[in-house]
Design a protein that fits this description.
Elements (H helix, E strand, L loop, with lengths): L1 E12 L5 H6 L1 E11 L2 H6 L8 H12 L6 H15 L5 E9 L9 E9 L2
Antiparallel strand pairs: 1-2, 2-3, 3-4
Length: 119
């Protein structure tokens, strides 16, 4: 088994409960970790025998482009889509961070993290 991590995927997205957040947008980062079997690809050196991290990045960017009120909803969509499109993945941890959130204080980021296992 093995782990693939994509760190600090940056997007400009329009999530949030405030109307202004949907109009103005904000900077976000996403960290993704997936568990899969890397033994075959470590021997064959062939992309078809592993999880393509380009596809993982595309899924994250596409789901971040769909507006949601809650970061939890975005993270759930990312997890669901990865499980649907990549059957080799057995576990996903995704963390979605809103940078400089409008919460009335000096906060660098707010982050939600979700972990799911394939059922």
């Amino acid at each position: 088994m093995g782990i693939i991590k994509l760190k600090n995927i940056r997007t400009y997205s329009y999530h949030g409960c405030l109307i202004e957040e949907g109009k103005i947008g904000s900077d976000y980062t996403v960290n993704l970790e997936v568990k899969t079997d890397l033994r075959k690809s470590s021997l064959t050196d062939d992309l078809k025998d592993t999880v393509d991290y380009v596809l993982l990045n595309r899924i994250v960017v596409a789901e971040m482009a769909i507006r949601s009120d809650l970061l939890e909803h975005v993270a759930h969509r990312i997890i669901t889509r990865i499980f649907e499109e990549i059957p080799e993945i057995s576990r996903i941890i995704v963390a979605v961070s809103k940078l400089n959130p409008p919460i009335g204080g000096d906060v660098e980021a707010v982050t939600i993290e979700m972990e799911e296992y394939r059922s």
